[in-house]
Amino acid sequence: MRITKFLIFLLIFVLACQKSDDVLSNQDQTNLTNNTQTEESSENSYDSESSETNSDKTFSREEMLRFIVNQIIIPAYDNLDTSLGELKTSFNLFNTDVTEENLTDLRNKWLNSYKSWQHVEMYNIGKAMETYFWHKSNIYPVDTERVNINIENGSYNLENPNNFSAQGFPTIEYLLYGQGDDTSENLNKLSDNVKKRDYLGTIIDALIDNTKTVLSDWNSVKDEFITSTENSASSNLNMMVNDFIYYYEKNFRTNKFGIPGGVWSSKELPDRVEGYFSESFSKELALEGMTSIKNFFNGVSYQDNELKGYCLKSYLDYIESASNELLSDEINAKLDIAENSIKELENNFASQINSDLTAILRTYDDIQATVVHLKVDMLHVLNINVDYVDADGD
Amino acid sequence: MQLVNKFKSYLSENVNPTPLAFFRVCFGFMMFFGILRFWVKGWIESLYIEPSFHFSYYGFSWIDDLGVYTYILFIVCGLSALLVMIGLFYRTSIILFFLSFTYIELIDKTTYLNHYYFVSVLSFLLCFIPANATFSLDNLRKKIDYSHIPRYYITAIQGLIIIVYFYSGFAKVNSDWLIKAQPLSIWLFSKYDMPLLGDYLFQQSWMHYLMSWGGMLYDLTIPFMLLNKKFRWFAFTLVLFFHLFTAILFPIGMFPYIMILSTLIFFSEDFHKKVIAFFYKIIKILPLFKRSENNLVKRGKIKIFDKPIAILLGIVILIQILLPFRYLLYPGELFWHEQGYRFSWRVMLMEKRGYTQFKIVDSVTKKQFYVKNEDFLTKFQEKQMSFQPDFILEFAHHLGSFYTNHGHKNIEVYTDSYVALNGRKSQQFIDPNINLLEQPNGFGNKEWILPFNDEIKGF
């Protein structure tokens, strides 16, 4: 009888355990919340003072997500939304009064919003991922042929993936800078052709709509979002960490430096740089991206640089509290080196590539040094799996 | 000499074949279930058909997936497992199973797992063992049921299980496992989301040490406790606890269940007779069996000591005893270079992560570019390749011939490779100045692996 019972028990157990030996299903995930975290906490995790004393003693994954969402992501989206509103206002003025002065203002507002874009590109998660927000906003090089066809036809579907590289910041840039050899020629092309201005207005509107969609989604999901802190492929915590690394490796390293520098192609491709048509902002945009990387890693609030919270750095320091060589210090040191290396480059990466390619490749290597720390060392101690879905960005 | 004779007569003693029959049923069932599970999870597609390139075992590069016919391979494997379970056309079935299963494993070493290797070795042994002697449909088919077989058929299986446990325990006697509690520290810490245990117990350092030492002692002692009648039930309770615990903790698939059922081979024939009687009770409900059992009048004994087979089984066991020591032929740290790591029952010893990129250089023009690994490998393959030197070399050679075939000339292949092991900081793994195309595949020492900056003491 004992054996009978045992066999039945064994069979049940075998069946019951089948689920748990691989990645848990999506539904299982959301039901599990982490018990280690404190329930009551304010919007701001804690101020900078306590972060100094707390960081290596305690850590809360939920507080880390809370800080990132409330202090970095949502304010960054708010800022993008505002700057795009200003871009639209400036466009309306320009559209009724096509002058060089108004074009200059429009270009400034474009640059301003493009820079604030650099702070949200990393968060290709949730609604942003679902709506291909990144692809619609910042795929370069621009498909100029397609842009011109769209302008000519006047009918197009911006939701069509083929049109992802015919909208967003690079396409706005193409219309504002790429229509002639100098500003006056560009101005003439825009003033002569109302269709071009219409297209410009439409893609600015699309960008605004897309931003508002993602922003309002963040505001509605944020409280639930931060509770998903399990160590699994589908938890928000792990996806956020993966998105960060993915951004650093692909969007930042590969797209801004690697591809134009010819790292993957044996021949440099200067027309692939970000800010190609304006010929002067590649560096500014890249440095903005670097700031967003550092702020994410070190838990620096988007609005107030003095406000700090739980972040990957404090997570690593918490785990390595016994070590005297902190991985986070090494990562920050390497990021500083990479940032300085970028600062040494010309403003326009295309002309930098043409004048001295090795400088770009050197910068690429400096950026690359941190990839190893993030993908190997950091994920090694956090024991988070890399879960890249789509590898190519260009 | 007396001892040898004693051992020999112990091995050739006639015993009841019921333990073997029950083992056969369990094995067939687990294998069928395992194949089914593999299919349902879509792994036939993603692990064998989808990849455009397979990492081969040295000397087996001629084995490739069969495209969509790979499914047929799995059907053969699954059906033969079923036939083994019910004991119908046993000899043919187990040979088919061994061949199809081993073929599948040889397609791509990315999927290497010690327990797959265990299954291959075990099914090879079973090809020579009359596990259908009783409680099988072959009994009905041939109208003969055997009541006795020489003991060495059972001893061979027990021997293999003893080796698996003992060596995996012995491999844990090393400074990372015992002194640093690695990699369990990393793994348990990251299980913070596990109900009940995760948020407190698994965060405690003493727990990491407890489980490290406990695991080592378990593996080393469990086979001997199973051999001893006095400790057997206690040992089996431990087996249950240990394997079910690891099943919940780690993504190790069928392994725990295979081991749990395998250890039953150590139990007495009385135990197995009771289990089989229970099975008969269920089966007897079917009228077909009622009738056929009455027809089964003949009783037989397989009692001749079959020398060639006994020697063959002995040789397989001897190889298993020696093979794990082949790492001694290579200088440097085994965990780092992994030369002689596989096929040695080294399980759960390492948390290793790598990042390896390949640079294609034209030796004349000095033009160079990097390879996107994902153009050639699946994520899983890339992950495994990144920290295993034989994978890195094989992939480098593949890249060499790929780019040569695509019109590139004077190709050299270099790597940027970094690996982190058991909580240590990453360090460069492969000599970046070595053109891997000039390095031969094979068992020779891979001198282009940079030395490990630390020392791990132990077996």
Task: Describe the structure concisely for a colleague.
Chain A has helices spanning 2-17, 26-31, 48-54, 61-96, 100-117, 127-130, 133-137, 144-153, 168-177, 183-192, 194-225, 236-261, 282-298, 312-319, 327-343, 349-355, 357-382. Chain A is mainly alpha-helical and 394 residues long.
Features:
heterodimer; A: 394 residues; mainly alpha; 17 helices; globular; disordered N terminus; disordered C terminus; B: 459 residues; alpha+beta; four-stranded antiparallel β-sheet; three-stranded mixed β-sheet; 53% helix
How does this structure look, described?
The complex is a heterodimer of chains A (394) and B (459). Chain A is an all-alpha fold and 394 residues long. The longest helix of chain A has 36 residues, at 61-96. Chain A has 17 helices and no strands. By secondary structure, chain B is of the alpha+beta class. In chain B, helix 2 (18-40) runs antiparallel to helix 13. The radius of gyration of chain B is 25 Å and the shape is globular. Chain B starts with a helix and ends in a 31-residue tail after the last strand. Chain B is built from 19 helices and seven strands. Chains A and B meet through helix 1 and helix 17 of A and helix 10, helix 12, helix 13, helix 14 and strand 4 of B.
